[in-house]
Design the sequence.
């Protein structure tokens, strides 16, 4: 299977690293500098700004059986119109996976959420994500490809985790009573991506999350325990000097169920079902 990653970022690169021997994987970035850097790491990367497609990128797209889309809305065009024009009747695309976010569920006051619950996005970025979900579903229909939505929880993994933050001295224990977040290890995103590609279901929506939504301060405390370090002092979320973006995350509170991915892809789909297994893997 030939796979093209529209937006060759952290999660897509990890997928390519783990499963590059199973598929031919290429991807797009927005600048020549990023493409050159990825080439040096052994990845096939092409420049695509969402509007203008180079001949090399177009050729790779037309060879793709599946498209993984991770371009965030708001970074100019994310390629709907250009792709339809380039691929309509000329490519061999069979399936599209769109990386969205559990942020589209908005605030549920700590209640559990499943894929059967309606999207009620609150934040402008989440509203754009939900609009992008709908647009990519339409794009799939126009191109004759199945389309599935992967709603990702907070991503962590190599280089982006609480163990690294403790070691660097940048970890903070920010507390809002009753607040919980779901997380997902980037390797589990890759595993679920592969499973969704191998079992395409048009119109499917999957919550890509761990088993245990947990308070953020608990994750830092556990990382400190693993490292035999003192955790940083607790600080109230309103006194933490968070950016508007950071504050917006604390304005939403929900527990997102992953029961569907376990039912569809198997109960062993997650290598890291909670943050504990994930953090131990970085020691």
Sequence:
């Amino acid at each position: 299977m030939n796979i093209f990653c529209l937006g060759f970022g952290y999660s897509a690169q990890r997928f390519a690293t783990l499963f590059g021997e199973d598929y031919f994987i290429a991807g797009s970035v927005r600048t020549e500098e990023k493409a050159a850097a990825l080439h040096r790491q052994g990845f096939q990367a092409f420049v695509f700004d969402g509007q203008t497609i180079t001949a090399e990128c177009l050729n790779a797209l037309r060879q793709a059986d599946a498209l993984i889309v991770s371009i965030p809305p708001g970074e100019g065009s994310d390629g709907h119109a250009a792709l339809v024009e380039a691929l309509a009747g000329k490519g061999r695309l069979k399936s599209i996976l769109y990386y969205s976010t559990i942020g589209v569920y908005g605030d549920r006051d700590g209640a559990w959420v499943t894929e059967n619950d309606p999207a009620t996005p609150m934040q402008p970025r989440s509203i754009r994500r939900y609009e992008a979900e709908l647009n990519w579903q339409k794009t799939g229909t126009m191109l004759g490809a199945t389309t599935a939505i992967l709603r990702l929880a907070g991503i962590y993994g190599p280089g982006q985790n609480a163990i690294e933050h403790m070691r660097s001295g940048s970890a903070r224990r920010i507390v809002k009573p009753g607040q919980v977040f779901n997380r997902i290890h980037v390797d589990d995103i890759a595993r679920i991506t592969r499973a969704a590609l191998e079992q395409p279901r048009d119109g499917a929506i999957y919550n890509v999350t761990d088993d245990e939504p947990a308070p953020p301060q608990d994750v830092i405390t556990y990382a400190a325990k693993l490292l035999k370090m003192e955790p940083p002092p607790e600080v109230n979320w309103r006194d933490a000097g968070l950016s508007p973006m950071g504050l917006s995350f604390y304005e939403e509170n929900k527990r997102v169920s992953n029961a569907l991915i376990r039912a569809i892809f198997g109960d062993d789909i997650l290598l890291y079902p909670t943050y504990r297994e994930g953090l131990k893997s970085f020691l």
The two ends are 34 Å apart (CA to CA). Residues 105 and 120 are 5 Å apart (CA to CA).
